Amino acid sequence: MPELAEPLARLIAEFKRLPGIGQKSAQRMAFYVLRVQRDDAERLSQAILDVKDKLGLCGRCNNITDGELCSYCSDPNRDDRIICVVEEPHNIIGIETARNFNGRYHVLHGALSPLRGLGPESLKLKGLVERIGQGDAQEVIVATNPTVEGEATAVYLARLLKPLGVRVTRIAMGIPVGSDREFADEVTLSKAMEGRREM
Ligand SMILES: [Zn+2]
């Protein structure tokens, strides 16, 4: 590789660490940053820092938010009777894209994985149990990923939550096993939600 000035080489190295970015893309991005006005470069670096500094977890559902509650929890037009449980915050985006769910969410920040030593204590479950205890929820839709871990988590949740007096359902598994729901299209997801079954 040709000798590059140290700051440029360092920026290329940082970009290369991003998912899906190889040497060529990293170089293009770094040379782009070199060319732009200082204002533009500052906006980019500030946006990166803000994601780290200004975001936290929603006090109710553990989604990512820049306030006390996330937009789904603070929206008065959503249905308190249905809670959709997902593994990660980005899973919510997929379900929202399907546009046929208007309830609340709960984010576990993980899934059970006995093989990797991840038990129930590694999941954000306490808030969910508390919310059900408050009595508004009638149905919990388990939308964990269609993987071994996601299935194990669904079975665990059904066992944990049904005695609390709620229906527990699982979204239909029309999606190929191993694929992550964020890549599933709108139609597939909306069918998965409609075809949910009792656990
Ligand atoms: Zn929330």
Mean pLDDT level: 90
Q: Order of strands across the widest beta sheet?
A: 4-3-5-6-7
User: How many helices?
Assistant: 8
> Helix proportion of residues, in percent?
40-55%
Low-confidence stretches: none
Based on CA inertia axes, which overall geometry fits?
Answer: elongated
Main pleated-sheet profile: 5 strands, mixed
Small-molecule binders here are: zinc ion
Strand content: 5-15%
Topology readout:
Blueprint: H1 6-16, H2 23-35, H3 38-53, E1 56-57, E2 64-65, H4 71-74, E3 79-86, H5 89-98, E4 103-107, H6 126-133, E5 139-142, H7 148-161, E6 167-170, H8 186-194, E7 197-198
Parallel strand pairs: 3-4, 3-5, 5-6
Antiparallel strand pairs: 1-2, 6-7
Helix pairs in contact: 1-2, 5-8
Zinc ion binds next to helix 4.
Give an overview of the whole structure.
The protein has 199 residues and is an alpha/beta fold. The protein has eight helices and seven strands; from the N terminus they run αααββαβαβαβαβαβ. Strands 4-3-5-6-7 form a five-stranded mixed β-sheet. α1 (6-16) crosses α2 and α5 (89-98) crosses α8. The radius of gyration is 21 Å and the shape is elongated. Bound molecules: zinc ion (ZN). Zinc ion (ZN) binds next to α4.
